[in-house]
């Protein structure tokens, strides 16, 4: 690992790129909710649209990550976010499934390319774990703003406001990366040297855990309303979720970096995720449901911060870290459509049952990936 320090501006560009590119992690409920309620799509159709965005990101990241150290990070990050902004602006003018599907796919591919540059460059910093934690704090603050603003904008201006917000976020990221994205010196790439089994096990475990996250979290808003909770109460939970993400997982991950092993965190994290998923999908009492929904995302953020730092140690070239969008979004891509299909055909408690088996698989692979 080169262990470079990029300065405040360079680090800030990476942080902005991170929370812009990870918009799906925090916006899934309002994204799916808007597609169902404002556009009239079925839960399964809404899940497919978001899945197309994520599949585009996976494909692009899979192509870009192995080529990290031969690509111009500034050009590809800024260009990727700019194309994503254009795709979302175009989506704001559409209401039909087919064109929206194509634009979701294009936006995802563009974001995946940009985000691979961001995460791969993060891996070359002196302390990738800490920078990723700082980016997580920014993501939490961003979630507060986004989850508070979007539902109000949807009420005032309709479904298209969702895509205008996304386009604005991507535009800010494009400009920031164009101006301040740091230059990372080339690293010996070892292109012919495959990843170790530990790297592959860790990548698989992260993907599986993210699948669980997306399968349940995509339908938090829909589940809450189906339980008879008022729209205002569900919105309050989403806002609380943003505050929890801001003050809890990433600061805690930064503080505990050298005090708790990554292996222990990656075993406990999926277990907590299982428990919370069962409560979210089956609880009928708001005082029980609300706290579980509010902390659900923070478990993923905290666990993945440790997993990210662990990957940068297993792979000093940064290629594995650059594949972060692929490993996160392949799970997230399948989650919304799987959750929609299960919820629509078997009821939302079935998501909790599925989460148990998926979570146990994640724990298994994290345990297998603890050694290089």
The CATH superfamily is MFS general substrate transporter like domains
CATH architecture, by name, is Up-down Bundle
- CATH fold field value: Growth Hormone, Chain: A
Task: State the end-to-end distance.
Answer: 15 Å
Measured on Cα atoms, how large is the radius of gyration? 19 Å
The CATH C-level class name: Mainly Alpha
Question: How many structural domains does the protein architecture include?
Answer: 1
- Model regions low in confidence, pLDDT < 50 over at least 5 residues: none
Averaged pLDDT: 89
Q: Sheet bearing the most strands, described?
A: none
What order do the helices and strands follow? HHHHHHHHHHHHHHHH
Helix content: over 70%
Decide which structural class fits the backbone: mainly alpha
Number of helices: 16
Tertiary shape? globular
What is the number of strand segments?
Answer: 0
Proportion of residues in β-strands: under 5%
InterPro entries: MFS (IPR011701), MFS_trans_sf (IPR036259)
Protein name: MFS transporter
Transmembrane segments: 12-34, 46-64, 76-94, 100-119, 131-155, 161-182, 194-214, 234-256, 268-286, 348-367
Pfam families: MFS_1
Which structural traits does this protein have?
372 residues; mainly alpha; single chain; 16 helices; Growth Hormone, Chain: A
């Amino acid at each position: 690992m080169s262990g470079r320090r990029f300065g405040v501006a360079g680090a800030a560009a990476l942080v902005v790129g991170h929370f812009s590119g990870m918009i799906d992690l925090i916006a899934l409920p309002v994204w799916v909710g808007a597609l169902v309620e404002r556009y009239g799509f079925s839960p399964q159709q809404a899940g497919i649209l978001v899945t197309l965005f994520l599949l585009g990101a996976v494909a692009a990241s899979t192509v870009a990550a192995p080529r990290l150290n031969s690509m111009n990070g500034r050009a590809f990050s800024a260009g990727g976010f700019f194309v994503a902004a254009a795709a979302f602006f175009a989506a704001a003018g559409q209401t039909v499934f087919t064109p929206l599907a194509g634009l979701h796919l294009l936006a995802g591919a563009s974001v995946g390319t940009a985000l691979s540059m961001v995460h791969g460059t993060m891996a070359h910093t002196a302390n990738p774990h800490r920078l990723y934690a700082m980016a997580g704090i920014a993501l939490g603050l961003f979630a507060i703003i986004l989850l508070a603003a979007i539902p109000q904008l949807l009420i005032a201006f309709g479904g298209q406001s969702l895509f205008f917000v996304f386009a604005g976020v991507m535009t800010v990221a494009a400009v920031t990366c164009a101006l301040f994205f740091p230059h990372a010196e080339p690293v010996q790439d070892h292109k012919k040297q495959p990843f170790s089994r530990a790297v592959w096990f860790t990548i698989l475990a992260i993907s599986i855990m993210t699948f669980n996250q997306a399968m349940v979290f995509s339908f938090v808003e829909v589940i809450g309303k189906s339980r008879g909770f008022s729209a205002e109460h569900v919105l309050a939970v989403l806002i609380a979720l943003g505050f929890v993400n801001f003050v809890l997982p990433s600061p805690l991950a930064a503080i505990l970096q050298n005090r708790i092993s990554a292996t222990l965190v990656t075993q406990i994290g999926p277990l907590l995720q299982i428990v919370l998923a069962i409560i979210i999908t089956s609880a009928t009492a708001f005082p029980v449901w609300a706290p579980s929904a509010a902390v659900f995302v923070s478990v993923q953020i905290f666990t993945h911060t440790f997993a990210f730092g662990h990957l940068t140690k297993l792979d000093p070239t940064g290629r594995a870290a650059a594949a972060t969008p692929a490993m996160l979004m392949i799970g997230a891509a399948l989650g919304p459509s799987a959750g929609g299909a299960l919820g629509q055909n078997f009821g939302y408690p079935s998501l909790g049952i599925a989460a148990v088996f998926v979570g146990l698989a994640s724990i298994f692979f994290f345990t297998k990936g603890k050694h290089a």
